[in-house]
Amino acid sequence: MKLTDRLSDHFTLGELLDSDTAIRMGFEEQFEPPARIIENLTALCLNVLEPLRISLNVPLRITSGYRCPRLNGVLPGASSTSQHLLGQAADIKSLYVTNREIMERIIALKLPFDQCIAEHPDRHGEPSWIHVSFGPRNRRQVMRAIGKKDAPRYVSGLE
After folding, report:
1. Domains present along the chain, CATH in parentheses
2. ∠ at Cα 108 (107, 111), nearest 5°?
3. CA distance 132 to 103
């Protein structure tokens, strides 16, 4: 597949693979994932990201999608069991709605997500970004990250 190929109506493969860090560090494998990763990214787009995008009717920015093992290994605080490594997760935000609104909409739509995490809320409770994943289990876990960005703790619930 080419980076410009669409995984759904509003999301391209390139958006889910993009990484300035991978480019800077020469991690070429980031942009040539195996077929199973592309299948997982497509499922994430079709089942979660696309329905969310349609419901919100605003563009969503993918700040992190698939991460090859070398990329994941150099990111502070990235878990060695991250669903990003499997192409099952994306970190998202938008210029047009708050990240809290994004998370609330994901929950309200009853989308089949595995985890939906409000990452590193500020002192007003606004998340820095939303992590959402889609995988074989889809446990619909709603959590928030608290504490230091390089060593977060995850607690249940949005509040």
Report:
1. 13-156 (3.30.1380.10)
2. 60
3. 9
**Secondary structure (DSSP) of 6-64:** BSSSS-BHHHHH--HHHHHHT-GGGGS--HHHHHHHHHHIIIIIHHHHHHHTS--EEEE
DSSP state of 79: -
Q: What is the pLDDT along the chain (159 residues), one digit of tens a residue?
A: 899 999 999 999 999 999 999 999 999 999 999 999 999 999 999 999 999 999 999 999 999 999 999 999 999 888 889 999 999 999 999 999 999 999 999 999 999 999 999 998 888 878 999 999 999 999 999 999 887 766 778 888 877
Query: Quick one: CA dihedral 46, 96, 139, 117, positive or negative?
Result: positive
Tokens representing residue 46 in the block: 């079709």
